[in-house]
Design a protein that fits this description.
Elements: E1 8-11, H1 15-21, E2 30-33, H2 38-53, E3 58-61, E4 66-68, H3 71-85, E5 90-95, E6 106-109, E7 121-127, H4 132-141, E8 144-154, H5 155-165, H6 167-182, H7 185-193, H8 200-210, E9 214-218, E10 223-225, H9 229-234, E11 244-247, E12 252-256, E13 260-264, E14 269-273, E15 278-283, E16 286-291, H10 298-307
Parallel strand pairs: 1-2, 5-9, 11-13, 12-14, 13-15
Antiparallel strand pairs: 3-8, 4-10, 5-8, 6-7, 6-8, 7-9, 15-16
Amino acid sequence: MSPDHIFVVAGRAHGDAIRSELPEIPSGNLLLEPEPRDSAAAIGFAVLHVLRQNPEAIIGSFAADHVISDDHRFLLAIRSAITRAREGKIVTIGIRPTEPSTAFGYIQVDSVLAQEEGLPRSVVAFVEKPTYEKATEFLGLGSFFWNAGMFIAKASVLWEFYQESRPELARGLATFYESYLDGDEERARMLWGELNEEAIDYVVAEPAAEQGRMEMVIGQFDWDDVGDFAALAKLHQASEEDRVIVLGSNAKVVAQDSTGVVVSQSRRLVSLIGVQDIIVVDMPDALLITTKNHAQDVKKMVEHMKLEGLDEVL
């Protein structure tokens, strides 16, 4: 794909890093959010930008923190999704679960066993992150897939759902985008801050499923959502002798009878003795200690710290 057709939506604080990592992306294709307002606002920003250039363009939205191992099979899934998107469908990529994970949302489709691999399935419902017992049940049924948060559709179709399901958000985004185009940064920042924080699942995916316009293609590739430090650890292999994964160029870690992951950006010595599945994130101005089982709860701690006025260490 030509870099001209790639758009990146990210927080303003990440702008310089993205320009450094992706110098081939035109500067006008880097859409910087004044502040986080969740995925519906971010994707809506990109939708409006693409609509202005080509209303019939097909958009694929993908999170930046996912790891995909097989480019060829990934592209096969995307091509299959594009075929259906041209007919007005919204298509998502589902990942066949390999374990009863409680870290992901799930997609329920109408049938799996009776259809050939590679064909789109009609989506019945999107399910929030389940309990372990429920995830085990999903694994046995075969009609539930991990929700990878990937959506492929015409820009015009996506915007149609914004206007139908969240007209207030659509109006707010349109007004913001006008100020963005005019170069009125102060007004654009104010308008962006007034947008409701909501995930794309509620604005587009769930309404589309209810109307029978959402389909799913199975992704026949290894996939992981690096949404927490436990997932990050899975991408790195610890040796038999040293079962603690250490990330950080200057990390100093000594471990005995311990397992887990240490992310260190300080020069302090981190010593672990007799602890299992531990996660240590050692930064110059803050220290996080938790376990792999509680890795998803870091998000709750971040919200708590915001309420306590500790934004400077986030």
